[in-house]
Specification:
This protein is mainly alpha-helical. The chain is 72% helix and 1% strand. It starts with 17 loop residues before the first helix and ends with a helix.
Length: 371
Amino acid sequence: MVKPVRKNSNKNPPILSHEFIIQNHADIVSCVAMVFVVGLMVQATSPLASVFIALQHNVTEAGEIPLYSPGIKDWAAVFFYSLICIVIHAIIQEYALDKISKKLHLSKSKLAVFSTSGQLTVFYLISTFWGVDIVLKEHYLPEIARLWSDYPAPMPFLLKLYIIIQLAYSLHELPELYFQRVKREEYSSKALQSVATLILVAIPYFLNFNRLLVCLLVLHHMSELFYHIAQLIQTIDKDEKFSKGARLISSILQILARLGSIILAVLTLWYGLALGEQQPLDIQAGHFNTPTVRLAVLGGILALQMYLTINVISQEIARSRENKVYTTVPKPKVQKKEKSKKSKKVSNEESDLPEVDQNTNKTLRHKQKVK
């Protein structure tokens, strides 16, 4: 469970203490990022600072439209942009989500869901529109053959920056576990999820399957966007008028996204890239188009999509069971009816007795009530 960070002006924790770092982590990280920006302005440190800020591994000559290839220096840019992600995360939390949650008066459990889904909704919204823009500009769809033609094709600036930001966002989630005061029992699962996302994006990126990667990310981000929107609706909608419809739309889109990802992966890795297969493996030139590599990547994508599909189905089954439990709770009205029936039986039995016996029964009941 994530506890949203809120600054308390009444308390002044000791400098460099855990509470001080958590409350002021956005300012501290922004100062670290400014060191790289200032270093870019100084002639002596400009070459080193540019490795962290500017995109590296330009494969075009001067005067041409810049095209890039993946390389080891990209991890420096991933580190720098992860600092930017931490600062933006804190800004969204403090100036948007915290102010909205105060007006809604949410419980602690719903507040944690609202903060997490709110952050991810902003990220997936930006990533979806950015990814769709790249796919349309580069004509990856509907010209699906461009996903495997001219392999290993260099990347345009926006495509490389897009993937760098995806890696940076996954990396920034690791220190956020500390900054957001995540419980210890949830540390391992959330950290494992962030590391897995980082690896799953990095592998096809450094293997030059970037065109397929951006299409898969767009499908995944689109489904996750609607999932977290449904989560936000569920936390706000007290009467559950729109929650069921939002969850249904989210589940359908997630299943369609998994199916679309499997189709694109099979077409690209099983059929498309097999036409221009490179033998032997040439790592220096960026050629990884061999049967072993392609089948390994395809197997990983299929396993991931099956896992995500099973996860969606299991969540829906769990929700249906919870709804059945709520509907089968016994109602107290039945007991009232039984009590009324018993009182009617007693009154009918007394009516059959003579008037003297009826009066004695009434007096006895009155004495019992008094006692």
